[in-house]
Amino acid sequence: MCDTLEHHYKNMQDMEFTIEHGKLYMLQTRNGKRTAQAALKVACDMVDEGLLTPEEALMTVEAQQLDALLHPMFDPEDLKQAEVITTALPASPGAACGQIVFSAEEATEQAAEGKKVILVRLETSPEDIQGMAAAEGILTVRGGMTSHAAVVARGMGECCVSGAGDIVIAADEGSFTVNGKTFKRGDWISLDGSTGKVYGQAVKTIPAEISGYFERFMKWADETRRLQIRTNADTPRDAAQAVKFGAEGIGLVRTEHMFFDGDKIKSIREMIVAKNDEQMEAALKKIEPLQQEDFEGIYEAMEGRPVTVRYLDPPLHEFLPHKPEEVAELAEEMGMSVEELQAKVDS
Question: What protein family is recorded (predicted)?
């Protein structure tokens, strides 16, 4: 019966049945849910068994599952011992493990010392970009799938879980409490950005690689597809990673994303709030060599592959500071009053 249903539907089946008075009754059957790894194995096995052609097998695996395989994953055996402390939105796929930090500055400093950290924030803002890039993963209390943390993390290919409303961050930002358990700065936690699960301990991660069933499956896709595959990449690091995964070019370099780095965002802010041509030119002189370095790095990584660049289209509100101390610092550098700069930010 199982073989009959599987051959008929040409997919792994999840069947419900009952036996009454020695007679078997089939209640229902549906395509079985499985992990990304299991989906690839099932697809390859069914081709080997002659149940599916490679073209048919390609349609049995969801694109979202393939995306998850392009990011770090948890070691299956280690994951069995892990305890889920909360579940929130799977904002950006992948797996991450690190020690808790509560500010972008902490994340940057500790990452520079070789430590793996998870950035835990109520919500993120453009000022956190450098720390977000330095962290292994990002966990936010507020925000949805289109929040700042989610969008930026997906752009960077970094693990993110957002909207974890069960978490209460202490007023001194030294710990957080979730479902009766308290975790302090420096404690280890792990995030699964593909499921939204947060684990209260270190879980070993495995780097993504295209091999085995995944490599075989993607070769079928390459033989069948008619479209070229390009990537979004805004930094030399993103471009190099895209080439590693087989991208045939860059479909979009979002120029404004180049300036989210901590050192660069300062110069772009100076340009935005410039009061005269002299200040504008001074800011542009700082920006030009930084942008040239990025473009050279991107072109080198792409090794002659096509690159499409979108000129600067800045969401100005995302670049300007919002924290009072950062507003005051920029105002002093620009020779403006705090009130004048705050009015610019609010506008």
Answer: Belongs to the PEP-utilizing enzyme family.
Which is more confident, 272 or 315? 272
- Residue 189 and residue 150: Cα distance in Å, rounded? 19
DSSP 27-92: EEEEEPP--HHHHHHHHHHHHHTTSS-HHHHHTTS-HHHHHHHTS-EE-HHHHHT--EEEE-EEEE
Q: Which CATH fold would you assign to the domain 2-69? A: Pyruvate Phosphate di-kinase; domain 2 (1.10.189)
Q: How far apart are CA 251 and CA 310, in angstroms?
A: 10
Tens digits of per-residue pLDDT, 202-228? Answer: 999 998 877 899 999 999 999 999 998
Q: At what angle do helices 324-334 and 338-346 cross, to 10 degrees?
A: 110
Among the listed residues 238, 260, 262, the one whose alpha carbon sits nearest the alpha carbon of residue 250 = 238
Q: Which are the contacts of 343, defined by CB distance < 8 A and separation ≥ 6?
A: none
Domain spans of the chain, in order of start: 2-69, 73-206, 228-346
Residue that has been written with the tokens 């005051």 in this structure: 328
CB 159 within 8 A of CB 72: yes
pLDDT in tens, 143-196: 999 999 998 898 788 999 999 999 999 988 899 999 999 999 999 999 999 899
Of all residues in the chain, what percent are helix, strand and coil, respectively (each to 5)? Answer: 45, 20, 35
- Do you know the residue count of the chain? 347
> What does the alpha-carbon distance between residue 54 and residue 220 come to, in Å, rounded to a whole number?
6
Domain 73-206: which CATH class? alpha beta
